[in-house]
Amino acid sequence: ILAKGPIDGINLLAQVNAKLPVSKQGLYKALRELMRDEVIIKEKKLFTLNKVWLSRLKDFVEESEQNLGIALPFLETSFTGRKVITFKDMDTLDTYWGHLFLALSERFNDKPFFFFNYHSWFVYDRPHSETYLYKKSLKKKNKILITLGSNTHFAKEFKNRFAKSNIQITIDEKIKTSITDHLCVIGDYLITTRYDKKTMEEINSLFSNASSFEEKEKKELKKILSSSKKPKMIIAKTLKQNQSYSCAYHYPFCLII
């Protein structure tokens, strides 16, 4: 809220309460702590972020990004094989994918991302993270080409909502791969995210049969994902194999490749 500019206490309380319940006393206690830590300042009746704190935060982020490494072989020019990473659950994998996507978008900023999956369930499970990554991609003008392999109501809704000039989405049921696998091609790398078959069959049934995605469907999706067993990420640098995937993806997007 404060990132949008200075705001008085009454309006700040109203906006905070629109997202989560908090008392006036609780809010002002938090504001006093933020002022004590020099995160915010108060000018007359208006609260605003401290520019010094923002500058320090920016320096911290820039230094962290320069020193940040990813425990994957993307920066190793000698890597030509295959690596498998097993995660304890879906949440761990999805969080890591967000981290990885941002790292890859920096490493391969001149190359398009190709994604294939059957259903766009990520935006329903992790709406805040997915929306952030989407907005980040728009801002950085990353080329992202997504193919959805199941022509459902939700696939059409996803396409209408997220397709832009640099983020193109097609629905193509002719491309066949295992229901357990979500694919990403970037440069010479093929990244396969592999889930257990039971989980993916339940997700397929949910998205194929539901007419809307309200609280009931969201709870069902959470239940399905929580039972997923040790999802994997498989990274392969096999140019010949990737060319076959790229050819399959290139056709619907031939105008911008």
Query: Strands of the biggest beta sheet: in what spatial order?
Result: 4-10-9-8-5-6-7
Tell me how many strands there are.
10
User: Hey, roughly how much beta strand do the residues contain?
Assistant: 15-25%
| Category from helices, strands and their pairing | alpha+beta
Helical amount: 40-55%
Distance between the termini: 39 Å
Return the average pLDDT rounded to an integer: 82
* Gyration radius from CA atoms, angstroms: 22 Å
Spell out the helices and strands N to C: EHHEEHEHEHHEHEEEHHEH
Poorly predicted runs: 244-257
**Major sheet summary line:** 7 strands, mixed
How does the overall form come out from the CA principal axes?
globular
**Continuous helix count:** 10
Written overview of the protein:
It is a single chain. This protein has 257 residues and is of the alpha+beta class. The chain contains ten helices and ten strands. The chain has helices spanning 9-17, 24-36, 51-67, 90-107, 122-125, 127-140, 153-162, 197-209, 215-226, 239-250; strands at 7-8, 40-43, 46-49, 82-86, 113-117, 144-148, 167-171, 181-186, 189-194, 232-237. The strands form two sheets. A seven-stranded mixed sheet has the order 4-10-9-8-5-6-7, with helices on both faces. A three-stranded antiparallel sheet has the order 1-3-2. Helix 8 (197-209) packs antiparallel against helix 9 (215-226). The longest helix is centred in the middle third of the chain and has 18 residues, at 90-107. It is globular, with a radius of gyration of 22 Å. Residues 244-257 have low confidence and may be disordered.
